[in-house]
Amino acid sequence: MEPVEPQSLKKLSFKSLKRALDLFSPIYGQYTPCDPASKQIRISYKLNAEYGSVKNLSSGPGQEQGGNEAKDEEDKASTSSALALPGNQDAEHPQKGGVQNAIVPGPSLPPKAPNAGFSSGSAAGAMVTTSASSERYPLTYALMERIPSKWPRPTWRPPWKNYRVISGHLGWVRSIAFDPSNSWFCTGSADRTIKIWDVASGRLKLTLTGHIEQIRGLAVSKRHTYLFSAGDDKQVKCWDLEQNKVIRSYHGHLSGVYCLALHPTIDILLTGGRDSVCRVWDVRTKAMVCALSGHDNTVCSVFARPTDPQVVTGSHDTTIKFWDLVAGKTMLTLTHHKKSVRALALHPQEQTFTSGSADNIKKFSLPKGEFLHNMLSQQKSIINSMAVNEDGVLATAGDNGSLWFWDWKSGHCFQQAQAIVQPGSLDSEACIYALSYDVSGSRLVTCEADKTIKMWKEDEAATPETHPINFRPPKEFRRY
Predict the structure, then answer these.
(1) What are the WD repeat spans here (predicted)?
(2) Which of 6, 16, 138, 161 could serve as a FRET partner for 261 with CA atoms 20 to 30 Å apart?
């Protein structure tokens, strides 16, 4: 007996394939001829799936069936038996509503005549139309009514334009604060001076000197004629604007002071800095009331409210903390951000605030700190400062000189501006460190790294036709 030589797996597979072809398909290279009945059923099924909801719109109310009812019933019975479809026996009778119920759901249409039916193939096609057909042939749903999105649509707002550039500082302009009477504003700079400017004309009114490092925080009291300043020299100073000199200094910070805020109803001052502590000071006695400790990194943003939480801070440790001012302890910690929270903006009327970080701009509710939503675009920059006016226009300033304007309610960015450095400055100095609205909310002032102060206002010539809203809601809120 001769030994059988081993065969490869590939050769055995081809042999098996050839044997199958010999058994089941003797005519190579040709398809099996199509059965006419099957072809008719398939075509009628496709026609009914795509055009079933509008196929009989033109049929008159008095139209009667022809003499082919027996043939139609016969075709229906043969089709259903051939396809072996489970279903109600009433589906075979159009007068009982079976065929109509089997059609893919579409828009509300005028009622059909009780005796308006399909041909034999169409009737069979109507019976086999299921939910799977709607997924496979979605053209039927093009006739459905569009459902409006639940996401709020933004209000049209005119774009903002730069109308004045003020020069006078010899270093980066790091901070800004407006007078409650809206007649002047002050700016703090890396040249260690505080300059007071006239709002209407932009002219310099006064220069205050006393700090020995750059000034990072400014606040003007609404209750007294006091101006408060804080800087990298660890000092917090109180200036009497009637005498234009320092009358108090608050000592206690172990490193530079980065942010500063006044309580709206109590004579206390809040300061945060690189020592990771937010300190509470009595304005009159210069005494430190308490130290709000709990952050793991620099406290770089703070604001105060008349009700709990009275103090909210943002830090480089990526968290936002709500503080109980009476107990001096943390009420709540928000950990939604992944990057440093350098800016916070409290809405002047609503119980909401936004936080700015390099990863995103988020909106939260007060007093519980519930997360509402992200802004619909991403500025892709370190957010140094934020401000919002009573009209609901949020302005955010980026480290790359980007100035974006947002609709507060919907989170839609309706304008993106870019800071232009003054002649003689480097392009890398196109950075906005601070910004603020005036008391009326009609002017915006930005403080930049090219030593300039820019003033912005709304473009009065803009209309909804010249600047239309280009808005799309988030994906999860879209309705097609």
Answers:
(1) 166-207, 208-249, 250-291, 292-333
(2) 161
